[in-house]
Write a structure and sequence with these properties.
The complex is a heterodimer of chains A (329) and B (339). With 329 residues, chain A is of the alpha/beta class. Helix content of chain A is 30%, strand content 24%. Chain B has twelve helices and twelve strands. The chains are: A alpha/beta (329), B alpha/beta (339). At the A-B interface, helix 7, helix 8 and helix 10 of A face helix 7, helix 8, helix 9 and helix 10 of B.
Chain lengths: 329, 339
Amino acid sequence: MSAAELEVRGLTKHFAVGRALRRSRLHAVDDVSFELRAGTVTALVGESGSGKSTVARILARLLEPTSGLVLFRGDDASQARGRGDELRYRSEVQIIFQDPFDSLNPVKTVGHHIERPLRIHGMVPSRQIEGRVHELLASVGLYPPAEIAAKYPHELSGGQRQRVNIARVLGVEPRVVLADEPTSMLDVSIRIGILNLMRKLAEEHDIAFLYVTHDLAAARYVADDILVMYAGQIVEQGPVEEVLAEPLHPYTRLLLAAAPDPGNPVRPARVERGPGRASAAVEPAAGCRFLPRCPLAVALCSEVTPQLAEPHAGHAARCHVTAPSIVTV
Amino acid sequence: MIAEEATLPVPMREKAETLLELRGLQVDYGRARAVDGVDLKIRQGEIVGLAGESGCGKTTIASSVLRILRPPGHVAGGSILFRGEDIVAMSDAELRRFRWRNVSIVFQGAMNALNPLMRVGDQFVDTLRAHERIDKRRALVRAGELLDMVGIDPRRLRAYPHELSGGMRQRVIIAIALSLTPELIVMDEPTTALDVVVQREILQQVDALKREFGFAVLFITHDVSLLLEFADRISIMYAGEIVETTSAKSLATRPLHPYTQGLLASFPPLTGPVTRLTGIPGAPPDLRDPPAGCRFHPRCPHCLPERLGLYTRQTTERPVLRELAPGHEVACHLVEGDA
């Protein structure tokens, strides 16, 4: 197993909501821990509002966590001193956003977008910049590179723009890439190409990818490991094949039952959503956050917040019934 | 083998009356022909899926059926027959009666179509009273029943749209679309903006309501994997044309058009072995200047100059939809050659 490039421990982010006298706290991310390893893709899945994008934003240092640690190669990222340290972290840990239409400047050429980070981070000597730009464009499958570099964003399709975003990120030779729903705005026939590219880059450049998505099938296709988030907490994590073949947490089971499966299109199983919500909880009470929707709930679930427990090595879930932890038994 | 492809026994297929029929429909936006010669039939009580990538013309078809095309879009040729009556030729007064009573529509992101300043109940009342002589009290009672049908507490009639979740608002829209018991509901990406669990729940509800009321659905989406589970028949669109129409079952097991095959191979499976997928190389054409011959030929893996006879036809002759097995129509030189 390769070393952890980025390690997250007990990451928590609360947002203040409500008016001055009735201020309460929205638990967007609660006690989230995981590792991103070099050369692997880790999928972070959940429904809208579950906190998955907040995690990516904290890791990209676009948000400060309320508490918890983010360790980059063992160093605490929040202890960065001065602009030098900050720049280093930001070049090593890059983020790709969902919207390829919004993330490029319409009045600048493709070449400009890729060149800029190379200059800011001093990646290559000035006279080699053009060659490097072309090399990067070719590496994400944009041909012919010289022609593409001269184009403006509006001249490219959505898939091509997302490839430009990826090339831009690769330029600074990051160790970690956070991809926040990079394919959800693209046409289906284009999506697979981006997923294949992500896989290829992870393997060839030994990059640790965090792939934030709501699409379980895409997660299974591209990722090694999976983290399932519900209402700000990770409710299940482990190797993607194992988690999806034998899901422990009832929420993972619900998600699986709800997702269309082209490999097996005729499934009569009915899905009952139940009353609860996957989005972050405001001042959540003790107990399991999935309780209102859970078909397996027992008395303990309303009293004690379940902790992540590992019934099988490397495969953990936050559930009193399917993954009882030693402490609460 | 071929006989097994038919989904409905022949007598049933004949019994179900044709509700909507598009014949050679052409829709232009300026110099671009967004829909070019589309034939499509929807029978009573049937769910017909229309799938394709963005810009293939599927939403244009939805708008044409309700005659709500935005200028400069206009029907340039062909006809849209609802129970034999041409919608294209209808007067404004006829259209007003036709819309909502015969056909209603649920748009993508329709949850944002609710008026934010009006209570949910009043929006039902507006719709009902625009088409029927009904007093407000009775209209509200009916609205409550409709909400109940889509699984929302009727007390929510007093709520404003912002007080409801996205999924609930989308279900309110579906309830309004049902309110005048239309025979056909056009749904254009009705669940695209929603989470999978909510999406699944809404589709189940639509299916149950369809069984109860017997309306037909034209379901438009980019997500073929969803249609495979939900639709009776599916038409695949590419660059303004329908390239394949068949039952959901035969589309899943025996897709014939290379574009359909590529589209299906773009969805990774949730179960079974994970194999490397390729998607479809290239991008859809500019409709102001579509490729000659088969519009898919520049992206088609089976279009090779080495097979000269076929290649010439693929690049110069436009393929037409032909029924290769009962109920299975394909527009492709390749399968024509094999047949």
